[in-house]
Amino acid sequence: MLTQLSINNYALINQLSIDFSSGLSIITGETGAGKSILLGALGLVLGNRADLSSLKDTSTKCIVEAKVALSSYHLEDFFKEVDLDYESETIIRREILPSGKSRAFVNDTPVTLSVLNQLRSKLIDVHSQHQTMQLSDNSFQFTILDALAKNQARIASYQRGFLQLNKLKKQLSKLEEKQSIANQKYDYNLHLFKELEEAKIKVDEQEILEEKLEKLNNIEDIKDNLSEALELTINEEIGIQNLLNTLDNRLTKISTFSKEYQTLSERITSVKIEIDDIVSELEDANENVDFNPNEAEEINDRLQLLYNLQKKHAVSSNEELLQVFEKISEEVGDVESADEVINLKQKEIDDVSEKLDKVAGLISKARTSAIPKLTKELQVLLTDLGMENARFSIKIKATKNYFSNGKDELEFLFSANKGGHFGELKKVASGGELSRIMLSVKKVLSENTQLPTIIFDEIDTGVSGEVSNKIAAIMQQMSNNMQVIAITHLPQIAAKGANHYKVYKKEINGVTTTNLKQLTTEERIVEIAEMLSGKDISDSALTHAKELLN
């Protein structure tokens, strides 16, 4: 709950700090005194947008700080989720700098406005007159019904599955889109795949074939040069082989005379052996040189096929061509196995949907069971608030659609008059009736949720007399379960508060400022008497004020 609010340099406020306690607290003040400024400052610290117009003195920063006691509200998990240090007394601070920049802190840790707004939804409900239009909002109507149905845990479970279902559906959609695109290319890709598969490409094949073709294209030169080389080596008169034999014989004869001749003889023997080997290979090469026009044509055809495929796929080597083949093979395989992948994804969706259906069924059943209780409680409360003919028609309809909170559609209709037709709240209820309905709804919610604080901003507008006493009684009952702060202009409600604060304006050195103070018992009597009779307080007004307080 809110335990302290400190405001510096905001609108008409120089500086103020006020403590709040549990139970029902009342804030009163003349019209224009600055009650809306207090709510503006509180809204600012809870995440509302800010601008320089919020600063009273534009040369220095504005600071609004709220202390909230959290120990009874089980918010530790939320603080972990948003990566904040949990403190049983948490301090929320908002600063607006003269530059117009805004900063927010929770326990001195900088936070975004998104986190601040999430925290706000768990701490304080500020209810003003215009918020009665929430009553016609279907999601808010579900919130009321689900609070009574104790559906919070079921809906949390459902929403986890709902997120998973949407994620799976997106994945399926992408798979189907990918398959559709792949199917359009499948026939062409299959043609390319078969063409490359039939080509039986090898990495080093091109270089080998190009070398073979080069030999075949120069077969005459090769034949002539091989023949001449053989002649140079094996000619009986001038051939290298015969000359080496002679040289070898000469050196062998003197090799025994010294190591020097022996080494020379051995080297010549070695050269002779190498030449003999070369001659043998020259003879084989010469015998094997044979021009085969069919072979040249086959090689030419094969190389042309490789060149054409490389050009077709915009690559320059067989290695790159094989990479293309692998990619096309995968694409063809993906299409051919896509049905299986899609079927598996659809099965995942069906499994999650089946589980969601069960949870949605439990949610719907709990809602249906809670409708009579909600209808009765609201009608009893509204009877006390002077709307004895108020009736509700609340119906649940199960659908096949998945919504964020279940699979139900909700019809939430109202009739204010006896024998009147049921219709949408915003169409058949007046502003005053909507205020009383909202108060009744908040009373029901206070008994079925763990919201720490609710602030009513003149929810009593348009009512008086006995109804105002009933409104005060309802607020008192609500304050047994939560902290209630009511801004009011009715003395009957003001008298019911455990604590009473007054907003007032004061002029200092020609400058008007807004202030807030907690009233003593005597000050409360005077304030309530003034609310009863105006500035000229009569004795009877003072007496009446004391009676109301007692």
From TrEMBL:
Coiled coil: 158-236
SUPFAM superfamilies: P-loop containing nucleoside triphosphate hydrolases (SSF52540)
Gene Ontology CC terms: bacterial nucleoid
BP term (GO), one: DNA repair
A Pfam family reported for this protein in Swiss-Prot or TrEMBL: SMC_N
Single Gene Ontology MF annotation: ATP binding
Classification via NCBIfam families: recN (TIGR00634)
Name the record gives this protein: DNA repair protein RecN
